[in-house]
Known about the structure:
By secondary structure, this protein is mostly helical. It has one domain: 3-Layer(aba) Sandwich (Rossmann fold), CATH 3.40.50.720. 53% of the residues lie in helices and 0% in strands. The protein is built from 4 helices and no strands. The protein has helices at residues 12-21, 37-46, 61-66, 68-89. α2 packs across α4 (68-89). It is flat and about 40 Å long. The model has no long low-confidence stretch (mean pLDDT 83).
Amino acid sequence: MVGVDNFANSSPARARAAGRAVGASPRVPKTSTCATPAHCAQVFERHAVDAVVHFAAHKAVGESVQKPLEYYRNNLGGLITVADSDAELTR
C-alpha cells in the first residue's frame, strides 16, 4: 500500500495508524497530488501501483467558501494531475 501525502493537514503517524487499521504497512512519500503528472508517474512506477484512489481533497466547508479557488486547485487540480499521469506512463 502506497499513499501520497503532503501532510498539510495530516502526519506520517496518522498514515501509519491508517495502515494498521487495515493491516498494512503503508509507504507514504511526502509529495503532492498537485505536483506534475510526470512526478506522479514516477511515484507510480517506483512503487508498482496498479490502482489509484484519490482522497487528497480539502474538506472544510466553511474554509472552502472563503477560499474557493484554493479548494478547486487542490481538489480538482490534484485529481486531474493524477489522471494525466497515465499519459506520462504510456509515453
